[in-house]
Design brief:
about 750 residues; alpha/beta; Chitobiase, domain 2; TIM Barrel; six-stranded mixed beta sheet; 16 strands; disordered N terminus; binds beta-D-glucopyranuronic acid; Hex-like_dom2; alpha-glucuronidase activity; Xylan alpha-1,2-glucuronidase
Length: about 750
């Protein structure tokens, strides 16, 4: 404040007639002071701008030489701006190129000599129309970026069949500049491999975010629809930049209120912000809504009154939101209502909703994350058992949304056995972007390698090469409807995701949803360049650090296929001792099954037989302790403490070794980051540095607590050189975290 006042005074003086007519020493001194303040102010602004709000769309100035090269190519912009999507593309290019190259391109109505950038569709841009480009195969959302010759001058063209496609292309071009790619001879064609690329917000109407670690919900329901936070537009920009085209606004543990008229007004207002960016809104629908807000006695999907209620509701929604995406439903899972409450099947429930949405072009995403209270079967098996019999019964605007992992988004899970087992039904992948089981927002864990591992896993459903990615993108079974969902890690924290590196998980989700064959490493590389700097002295070590971070977390939390050992309810920190309570499969002991003899969940043909839900070539491998990937050893097998693993160590020694290896990896991440301070603004560097310190402490805590606990079973000494846990098991067990963030309400 003081600074502004002083500046104001100095500036005023400069215009004072006395000073203006007598530019003596005093005047020069004032001028110099003024200049200094300006520089200082500019610096302050730069520092403030680096709080993470701008995500990967910072558009920070490139080095002079690189900028000059690009400027020659991108001197003037020929882009229509007659509707909101076209304006979004044009404004983004003006902003992006202006920021990166220090000068916004001139805007022109037609190509005017060299250095033209043409953006649009054949119908929106006569200049593009005249080029006669081959666009048909690009579909609705695809685009091409090409260097062409127009009247003897090289021009850059971003062309698509739709305005949204052109917007995606604009973001791609900006990505090329941001990551300093050559743009002299471009010939790129892109179209998404997956049709629905959707974020799932587990946001409650009171702004609490279930499993959210980045502050309150960004949806300010109370002030909607009248106040449209500018953040909504930036959210839409960020999503469009990575190709996300849908957002489910509310928690899967849904509140029926969102389907009432006042909330639908709010939904419509958000849809209005999203629409120009190619994003449709969806709602998580509570199956019992007809009873809760409709005054009916039942929500039986075959009851005509219930159907009429949903029909009227769908009509009401579409009157307000003509491009409404549809419903996401969590039914008969963890106490949520569903068709089974009325003696009906998942297919009956999903189809009833699908029928009322179909005339409007809406779809149903019906979740397969189910496990029942009555069936005390291995939880791993229940989704398959319940859903496979219904393959072929779902209407064609239903997708079944299958979690990454048959248990629950664990740090590392084998691919879900439903992938490949329901060829007549489009199966959506549901990844968790928020790190419920991976250290919340404070642990640096890049999820790209985990997504990649799962998408590339071979289901063998139709012989070798039947990857999960091919099931999900619909190509394996010829589905045109396909989708990937990600449980969002977005909140109202200034940096959106709770930590700077968690932004990379939002980013990689979008990029892989667009094209599941992309590599996690390449995506990390482009994200680092856009988010921090192109300097290889920074990019290389940081990408290495990110790529190793998932394995590190698996090692210090749940090595060798252990799973679900986190604190009860909130899932913060280690608690392998959790037992008792309402149901066995909400305890840790159910999952690790440690005894004096050994540890692990026997899911082999002689155990729960979950392995048999996989295609035979996969089942054989998982069933065999000598062939199962060691990362899943204790997922599928109960093994003696003294049995040998591939390294030649005993199982006990290997377990301890991996815990320590994970802690060591975090220590190395800290070292790497500490040495990179001159490449990063102090604000972001400091937060990452402090979060890594927390991660190291917590990794150590995971190791120590887990070893202290499992040693009571193995009874074996620690391998040589391994430090004993500094505290007693009783101490670790006594830790409580009643206010850990993100818990269910
Ligand atoms: C679990 C979460 C819980 C969710 C549930 C789900 O702990 O908060 O409601 O998944 O996906 O992982 O429905």
């Amino acid at each position: 404040m003081r600074l502004f006042r002083m500046l104001h005074t100095t500036a005023n003086r400069r215009h004072h007639p006395d000073t203006a007519t007598r530019p003596g020493r005093v005047g020069r001194w004032r001028l110099a002071t003024f200049a200094c303040w300006l520089v200082l102010l500019a610096c302050l602004q730069t520092v403030h701008a680096e709080d993470g709000y701008d995500l990967w769309l910072r558009y920070a100035p490139l080095e002079t030489q690189a900028a000059a090269g690009y400027r020659e190519r991108l001197g003037h912009l020929v882009a229509p701006a007659t509707n909101a999507t076209q304006r979004a593309a044009r404004d983004e290019l003006v902003r992006g190129i202006g920021g990166l190259l220090g000068k916004a391109p001139a805007q022109a109505d037609s190509v005017d000599g060299a250095g033209a950038l043409l953006v649009g569709t054949p119908s929106s841009s006569p200049a593009i129309g005249r080029l006669g480009l081959e666009l048909d195969a690009l579909g609705d959302e695809g685009y091409l970026i090409r260097t062409v010759d127009i009247g003897g001058n090289a021009a850059t063209v971003v062309a698509a069949n739709s305005d949204t496609g052109a917007l995606y292309g604009a973001f791609h071009l900006l990505r090329l500049l941001q990551s300093r790619q050559p743009i002299d001879a471009l010939d790129l064609r892109e179209s998404p491999k997956v049709r629905l690329r959707v974020l799932n917000h587990w946001d409650d109407l009171n702004r609490h975010v279930e499993r959210g670690y980045s502050g309150q919900s960004i949806w300010d329901w109370h002030r909607l629809p009248d106040w449209l936070d500018p953040r909504y537009t930036d959210y839409a920009r960020a999503n469009a930049s990575i190709g996300v085209n849908g957002t489910v606004l509310n928690n899967v543990n849904a509140n029926a209120q969102i389907l009432t008229a006042p909330y639908l007004e709010k939904v419509a207002a958000l849809a209005g912000v999203m629409r120009p960016y190619g994003i449709r809104v969806y709602i998580s629908a509570r199956f019992s809504a007809p009873m809760e807000i409709g005054g009916l006695e039942t929500a039986d999907p075959l009851d005509p009154a219930v159907r009429r209620w949903w029909q009227a509701k769908a009509d009401e929604i579409y009157a307000k939101v003509p491009d409404f995406g549809g419903f996401l439903v969590k039914a008969n899972s963890e106490g949520q209502p569903g068709p089974q409450d009325f003696g009906r099947s998942h297919a009956d429930g999903a189809n009833m909703l699908a029928e009322v949405l179909a005339p409007h072009g809406g779809i149903v995403m019906w979740r397969a994350f189910v496990y029942s209270d009555e069936e005390p079967d291995d939880r791993h098996k229940q989704a398959y058992t319940e859903f496979v019999p219904h393959d072929g019964e779902f209407r064609d605007n239903v997708l079944v949304q299958v979690k990454n992992g048959a248990i629950d988004f664990q740090p590392r899970e084998p691919f879900h056995p439903l992938f490949g087992a329901m060829p007549k039904t489009p199966l959506m992948m549901e990844f968790q972007i928020t790190k419920e089981y991976l250290g919340f927002a404070t642990h640096l864990v890049y999820l790209g390698p985990m997504y990649e591992e799962v998408l590339r896993a071979d289901t063998h459903a139709k012989g070798p090469g039947s990857t999960v990615a091919k099931v999900v993108d619909g190509s394996l079974d010829g589905h045109t409807l396909s989708g990937i969902a990600g449980v969002a890690n977005i909140g109202s924290d200034r940096n959106w995701s709770g930590s700077h590196f968690d932004q990379a998980n939002w980013y990689v989700f979008g990029r892989m949803a667009w094209d599941p064959s992309l590599e996690a490493r390449a995506i990390a590389d482009e994200w680092v360049r856009m988010t921090f700097t192109n300097d290889p002295a920074f990019v290389e070590p940081v990408v290495e650090m990110m790529m190793a971070s998932h394995q590190a977390a698996v090692d210090y939390m749940t090595p060798l296929g252990l799973h679900h050992l986190m604190g009860r309810g909130h899932h913060y920190g280690p608690a392998p001792w959790v037992e008792g309570g309402p149901r066995a499969d909400w305890t840790s002991v159910y999952f690790h099954r440690a005894t004096k003899e050994g540890i692990g969940f026997d899911r082999t043909t002689s155990g729960s037989d979950a392995v048999s839900q996989y295609a035979p070539p996969v089942a054989e491998v998982f069933n065999d302790p000598a062939r199962v990937p060691e990362d899943f050893l204790l997922w599928f097998h109960h093994r003696p403490w003294t049995s040998r693993v591939a390294s030649g160590r005993t199982l006990w020694d290997e377990l301890v070794h991996r815990y320590s290896r994970g802690v060591g990896a975090v220590a190395r991440m800290r070292d790497t980051w500490a040495g990179l301070d001159r490449h990063v603004d102090p604000e972001r560097h400091h937060q990452v540095e402090r979060f890594l310190a927390i991660q190291q402490q917590e990794a150590q805590w995971w190791r120590d607590a887990s070893i202290a606990y499992f040693q009571t079973f193995s009874g074996l000494p620690l391998p040589e050189g391994e430090a004993p846990p500094p505290e007693s098991l009783e101490y670790y067990k006594s830790l409580e975290f009643p206010h850990a963030p993100g818990d269910t309400q």
